[in-house]
UniProtKB/TrEMBL annotation:
Coiled coil, from the record: 90-120, 144-171
Pfam families registered for this protein in UniProt: ASD2
Family: Belongs to the shroom family.
InterPro entries assigned: ASD2_dom, Shroom_fam
Species per Swiss-Prot/TrEMBL record: Gavia stellata (Red-throated diver)
Protein name (record): Protein Shroom1
Organism phylogeny: Eukaryota, Metazoa, Chordata, Craniata, Vertebrata
Amino acid sequence: ELISSLRSKLQTLWEERELILSEARECAGWGEELEATVRDVCKPNEFERYMMFIGDLEKVVSLLLCLSSRLARVQNAMRRIDGNTDAEEKQSLNERHKLLSRQREDAKDLKENLDRRERVVSGILAKYLTEQQLQDYRRFVQVKTSLLIEQKDLEEQIKFFEEQLENLEKSIP
């Protein structure tokens, strides 16, 4: 029953992932239209700023999500430490935790910098775009970020359930 339940949950997650990927493709198309509009109306250096911001948006959000995920896994491993855990493993987990915490703080600084750059890009676009186009741009940035977060979350859930299923199948003779 448990194996069947896990397989069913995985199937649902895989279907959800396909839906998110479809939305991501749609968002990418929307981004290409927006890019063409920005290229047509902005000066080349302003367009370059826009493109750098959009490219960095995905990188910084993905980095933050990845580091947060890795940090959570290390924290979970640290919670499982008991009297039987050897000192070397405890030290390794503590070092990884410190490193990932520093890296996540650095990534948060990058995100704050990215937010400032977004305000600059938004100011540039406000000079050229209609109010509706500006709203479309802001919505695009919001949707792109949300889709990245949803995708990462789904991938984590899928990975977790696949591991659970694999461990369960191995434990049954």
